Amino acid sequence: MATSDDQQLNAALRDADSPSWAVRAAAGRRLAASERIGEAADVLHRLLLDTQDTAVTQETAEALLERRDTAGLRCVLLAVSRAAETWTADEIWAALDCNPDWMTTEGADGLIARLHALAVDEDEGVREEARGILAGLRPREQWAREPETGTQ
Fold it and tell me: For the segment 68-84, what is each residue's pLDDT rounded down to a tens digit?
């Protein structure tokens, strides 16, 4: 007999194939929030790279990042490394750049720790994306010392 969790996961997996972008986006959010993310990884990847509507990409990426864990961030980095369309990659990068975790010291430190863990991931695309983000970051000690002049 299927449990409620099984039924919810199966419903979200079915909804991921919907012709409606709104239903696919909602499915991406539900799958991203699932504790069984590994079982849905292929479908999440497909939703992140949705060829029909970037709203599906955006909603799924944001939901994965809201998990604030390595598994969610890994899915996002894997997708951005495989994005064939510029607009898809742009939506994924927008979700990363606008992630509220970057806005607090604690959140940024956690995100950076997850990026360091993914910088040695088994997948080359994930590794390269994580390393690229890390390379673009200035150490907190550097920006904390800079005077607030309004220019960088």
Answer: 999 999 999 999 999 99
| Maximum pairwise Cα distance, the chain | 64
Whole-model pTM: value is: 0.86
Residues 111, 73 contacting (CB under 8 angstroms):
yes
Q: Which residue has the tokens 């898809």?
A: 88
